[in-house]
Specification:
Rossmann fold, 5-stranded mixed beta sheet, about 35% helix, about 25% strand
Amino acid sequence: MGRREKKPGLFSTRNIVALFIVAVMVLSGLGYMMERNDSEDAFEYNGYKFDILNNMLTTKVGNMKLTFFSDPRYVDNINISPEILPLLKNSRMIYFTYNDSDILKEDVALVHYTIAEPVWKSLNLYVVQALTDENEYNYPVITCANATSAVPVIYFIHSNATGFVLEGNCVIANAFSKSDVYVLTDRLLFGLYGIMK
């Protein structure tokens, strides 16, 4: 009697390797198609090419790839006092403050978390999260009264209108809605990076 040859099972090494190769090829093709669709939505603004990636906008400034929440074409209508950008550019540290009972607090905190490290790495500008009152988070208590030319304050406030007001060395960012927090932040960043004036 001869020995029966064992048939390879469904989960043999050969089948698993073949399935892995097919999966890599299919996922690579899907990734290429998705990237291609995003790049079709690319646009240019003031000499900077913007790409859409995961619902965010990216562009290169020098050798840095930067990410923004807002389209600069829709942000450039927000007026900004000519003194604000030099005030921020000439400092090495900025306080990003808000009231912990403000309805915009989660959005301001998220914006700070998102921009703090890239702004530090690209502009050598330290952005410190603060609150206007004593708090359980041990954040510094900072208001416009603490603002100096060396360490300005950006104070986010829920307001009936969206825009910036400069009071001394304090930039008051009035936001009507949660989305305005992102728009105002990007307006400042576009100015700091030289994408818009």
